[in-house]
Amino acid sequence: MKRFSVDARDEQIFARLFQEEKAAVFEKLDQLEQALYHLQYEGKVSSSRHIKKADDVMRFLKKTYTAHVDLDERVIFPFLEKHIPRLQSVLLYLRAERREFEDGITVFEKILQDLKKGNNGVIRHRIIDRLKDKGIYLICQMRSHIQLEEQSVYNSIQRELQAGEKNALIHNITHYSFTHCC
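The structure corresponding to this sequence follows.
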């Protein structure tokens, strides 16, 4: 997350707080999608490059995802549960969706490992099909999750919190980011 001074009166502050992270995640999701399609349609000669790209993207997503979830669980969600209790059901849904995403990452990584074993022929094509299917599902799930988080959580923060509450949340986020970054 980018470090900068903020003003809680800024209507888009919470969307902007995570703008860089979102852009980087979307770029990586696009790269993963490209790698998966290239794996399916290009020959085995090019596949090691696409497997490496998928591996690199998954490492980036896991790192970014872990940091984002940690911030949400330690700072943002507890604050919202206290100050905007009606968001409780959305937060529960987001948490459930995250568990499903984590399970999907585990399955994706296992399939990717199977592909690295060097299977040939029909088995290889089935593995690539499974990998592409699971990867495309994860990409869609992540995009949907980000959109839901923006539309429900960040918009609710902006609309429903008072200026002092927004400032307190921003302070908590920036403090957490400074003490847990890098």
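Residues 1-6 have pLDDT under 50 and may be disordered.
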